[in-house]
UniProtKB/TrEMBL annotation, chain A:
This is Fumarate reductase subunit C. Coiled coil: none annotated. SUPFAM superfamilies: Fumarate reductase respiratory complex transmembrane subunits. It comes from the Bacteria. Keywords: Cell membrane, Membrane, Transmembrane, Transmembrane helix.
From TrEMBL, chain B:
This is Succinate dehydrogenase iron-sulfur subunit. The keyword Ribonucleoprotein does not apply. Binds 1 [3Fe-4S] cluster. The lineage of its organism: Bacteria, Pseudomonadati, Pseudomonadota, Betaproteobacteria, Rhodocyclales. Pathway: Carbohydrate metabolism; tricarboxylic acid cycle; fumarate from succinate (bacterial route): step 1/1. It catalyses: a quinone + succinate = fumarate + a quinol. It comes from the Bacteria.
Automatic annotation (TrEMBL), chain C:
This is Fumarate reductase subunit FrdD. The keyword Membrane applies. The keyword Transmembrane applies. The chain crosses the membrane at residues 12-39, 59-79, 100-118. It comes from Aromatoleum petrolei. The lineage of its organism: Bacteria, Pseudomonadati, Pseudomonadota, Betaproteobacteria, Rhodocyclales. Keywords: Cell membrane, Membrane, Transmembrane, Transmembrane helix. HAMAP family: Fumarate_red_D (MF_00709). InterPro entries: Fumarate_red_D, SQR/QFR_C/D.
């Protein structure tokens, strides 16, 4: 593509840019986790709808969740959203202001590790809460 | 070969050529270049220009990774040609193209008018909070205050981060990673008082919110500046300005 | 270069994207595991953990309503913002209509969730 400039600068096309570099391929993959996050939100939204419709509707939804297809689908959701978790905290040191503890800057790897540790703590807390409330 | 260097080693350098007066579009042209282990890609290009093809155009100046002139795509990655060595391409060939995402002026020379206009727009100099007379002495700064912005002052305007930024390629209005690193260098300086003016750029439609945190800009920076961090710190700040403006009459950047 | 004059309204959507992304990173995996794998298979938590009386009580409590609303709404805002940008990455550039479609879907999900949670009583 050329502009109307008499020097005829050449502007290269962007089509397929993300296939040019493995870094960009990974970027597109972690951006695609959004599809799974949206899918899970919609699954929960349907659940809330069934709940509002009464006991029979709710039990039908629970039954649907027990189908092998649903369990397999949720395994895919789990993998994708766990990958989102990892990439979210991997980029975090680049997205936040510098953090100083005791006058020294906290290393990026430590920030990522703290984020992942927080996710583990949150997961265990929810599991224990649910386990305690339902056993 | 007219020069007795190379100890018999040859590398094929494929260069993306574009001569606007005769070429409809760029094409790859290969050159066989004798080399020694201490030769950079830039020296390979200089060999081509001196001995094989005087029509080849490229920018260079310092040969020591400080002027930022010789940025180009080397095997698809944005790199400084003076800081990349021919010995590191054991397959025996290397592809050299003009920096991605910029219009090609000629061969490996890109057009940087857009970057320069953006650079002016952020006032890349210290605008003191309060003017001091000579008698009042220096603008003092502690090491901790220096540490906040020091890495961002290492930017050499080489544009590798722009060639690494797909968002700039997709939307050239985006001010981009390098300009944001420079903007942050001044905004984060304790002696400077012009952050509100510069934040108008950061918070505009051409500003930081075009960034999707790809992060490759920071990977390719030859001076270990972290432009992605500058962009994203200013997302937080621009968002703060945006909402603060709603609750306080004089809050925010405007 | 175009003049930099218009303030971006992106902070609203970026804020929701960030909040949803953080929530999904911290709690997404465990929620999917509980509702989609552990409960259906009766694994770790009892199979009747999401029984009608229990879940109805959960959805009728203000805290339960809050959890469901925040999770569904923020996950949707996070996802639709990212999908809008991914479409831009793929060459489908965000005009006004595309923004309305993406953010509109998130807003619709938010409002439907709120309405259903109000309808399920207290």
């Amino acid at each position: 593509m050329n502009t109307s400039d008499s020097r005829r600068p050449y502007v290269r096309p962007m089509a397929g840019w993300w296939r040019r570099n493995p870094f960009f391929v990974e970027y597109m993959i972690h951006e695609a986790t959004a599809l799974f996050v949206a899918a899970y939100a919609l699954v929960l939204l349907v659940g809330v709808m069934r709940l509002a419709q009464g006991e029979a509707a709710w039990n039908g939804w629970l039954e649907a969740l027990r189908s092998p297809a649903s369990v397999a689908f949720h395994a895919a959701l789990l993998a994708a959203i766990s990958y989102h978790c990892w990439t979210w905290f991997r980029i975090m040191p680049r997205t936040m202001p510098p953090l100083f503890v005791g006058g020294k800057r906290v290393a990026p790897a430590l920030i990522t590790a703290c984020g992942l540790a927080a996710a583990v703590v949150c997961s265990l807390a929810v599991l224990i809460l649910v386990w305690g409330a339902t056993r | 070969m007219s020069e007795s260097r190379g100890n018999g080693k040859l590398i094929r350098i494929e260069v993306l050529r574009y001569r606007p007066e005769q070429d409809e579009e760029p094409f790859l042209q290969g050159y066989e270049v004798p080399f020694t282990d201490d030769m950079s890609v830039l020296q390979g290009l200089q060999y081509i220009k001196d001995w094989l093809d005087g029509t080849l155009s490229f920018r260079w100046s310092c040969r020591m990774a400080i002027c930022g002139s010789c940025g180009m795509m080397i095997d698809g990655e944005p790199r400084l040609a003076c800081k990349t060595f021919l010995r590191d391409f054991p397959a025996g060939s290397v592809r050299v193209e003009a920096l991605a995402h910029f219009p090609i002026e000629r061969d490996l020379v890109i057009r940087m008018d857009d970057f320069l206009a953006k650079l002016e727009s952020i006032k890349p100099w210290i605008i003191p909070k309060e003017e001091r007379s000579l008698a009042q002495g220096e603008y003092l700064q502690t090491p901790a205050q220096l540490d906040v912005y020091e890495q961002f002052s290492s930017c050499i305007n080489c544009l590798l981060c722009y060639a690494a930024c797909p968002q700039y390629g997709l939307n050239p209005d985006f001010v981009g990673p390098g300009i944001m690193a420079l903007l942050h260098r001044y905004n984060a300086d304790s002696r400077d008082g012009a952050a509100p003016e510069r934040m108008e750029v950061a918070g505009s439609e051409a500003g930081v919110f075009n960034c999707t945190a790809v992060g490759y800009c920071s990977e390719v920076c030859p001076k270990h500046v972290d432009p992605a961090n500058a962009v994203n710190q200013n997302k937080t700040r621009a968002a703060g300005d945006y909402f603060l403006r709603l609750v306080t009459p004089k809050g925010g950047a405007r | 270069m175009k003049p930099i004059s218009r303030r971006s309204h992106a902070p609203i959507f970026w804020g929701l994207f960030g909040a949803g992304g953080m929530l999904a990173a911290l709690f997404g995996p465990v929620l999917v595991f509980i509702t989609g794998i552990a409960v259906p298979l009766g694994f770790i938590v009892p199979a009747d953990a999401m029984s009608w009386p229990r879940m109805q009580a959960f959805a009728q409590h203000w805290a339960g309503k809050g959890v469901l609303f925040i999770v569904i709404a923020l996950f949707m805002w996070h996802a639709m913002h990212r999908i809008l940008h991914s479409l831009h990455d793929l060459g489908v550039h965000a005009g006004f209509a595309l923004k309305v479609a993406c953010y509109g879907l998130a807003l619709l999900a938010t409002m439907v969730t709120a309405w259903l949670l109000m309808a399920s009583g207290f």
